């Protein structure tokens, strides 16, 4: 039951030519799923993401005008600005993701010329698939290619993350942008969010499929609560540092450290720290599962992650918990969990290919009956990260 609107990257190029009468550069950048390792990235821990076959496409070319013009197909909206003054705006909000990238590139000493840009895509928004990172990375890659700045992929990742922090106001970790740029087809990877070292693992989906179930609940609390969770983790680190000054982040902490000083932790902070420490280890154990092609064990870890996110980290909601609980009742489901910032968005489900249709039909009907909401589902495949589609100028 595919719910993504029909999308053709060539249509973005055609729209650009219609609006600006020149041939653009065309760049795609994917959304991402995170198989395991949630809310560990900003704690300098481990994550296991993969890029998916839903993407944001940027069409771009130089402008003869003194100002730059953006057009969002999704919002049917124009926005113009001068590249020397790419300041944050109150409206339209979607422009801030682009303005932040321009600001950071300008601040790094690059001379950005006026340009025209058209953006569209089929990464669902508010579903925990990092549509904002896909937008930032697609645009950053396109702007870099247009100007021949020769900015490295890693620096494009960091520029895009800066835009998210400073123009979108979400203090995200590095995972979303890194995944969008660095993904490889058919592979998940473990990213060390401190060193940025990463290792790819084959994700054998010959007998299984990844199905996303969208609660249709949008992240009304996600941004504020995301920043609250980050602050709670930082508070936990400060307490631990009083006894273990070598601890820089929860990445360095152990459960024994927590338990030894448990009376000094506010209850919520203790739970947040417990989850993050456990989740970091789960990522490393899950990587071993992939090396052995043991998706059954991998799926069990997904369920463990959801339990921790719901009970200890407090970022789930009734709809997400319901979908995960229902998945356990359906034959052929190896694992399921909420994915993303929380308070809505998708669950990611690892399902035997032979039972995908039954899984979707069954969980769709159960969700409709329980919440009176028509749920979207997406069967996704693992694809390459940000890349050039065409440059025919």
Provide an overview of this structure.
The chain is an alpha+beta fold. It folds into two domains: 9-203 and 383-391, Ribosomal Protein S5, domain 2 (2-Layer Sandwich); 208-380, Alpha-Beta Plaits (2-Layer Sandwich). It has eleven helices and twelve strands. It has helices at 9-20, 94-107, 131-147, 153-168, 175-182, 222-241, 255-260, 267-291, 295-311, 318-327, 356-371, and strands spanning 25-36, 46-62, 68-72, 77-81, 115-121, 187-192, 198-202, 208-214, 333-338, 346-352, 376-380, 387-391. Strands 1, 2, 3, 4, 5, 6, 7 and 12 form an eight-stranded mixed sheet that branches. The protein has a four-stranded antiparallel sheet with strand order 9-10-8-11. The longest helix has 25 residues, at 267-291. The chain is globular. The two termini are 39 Å apart. The mean pLDDT is 94.
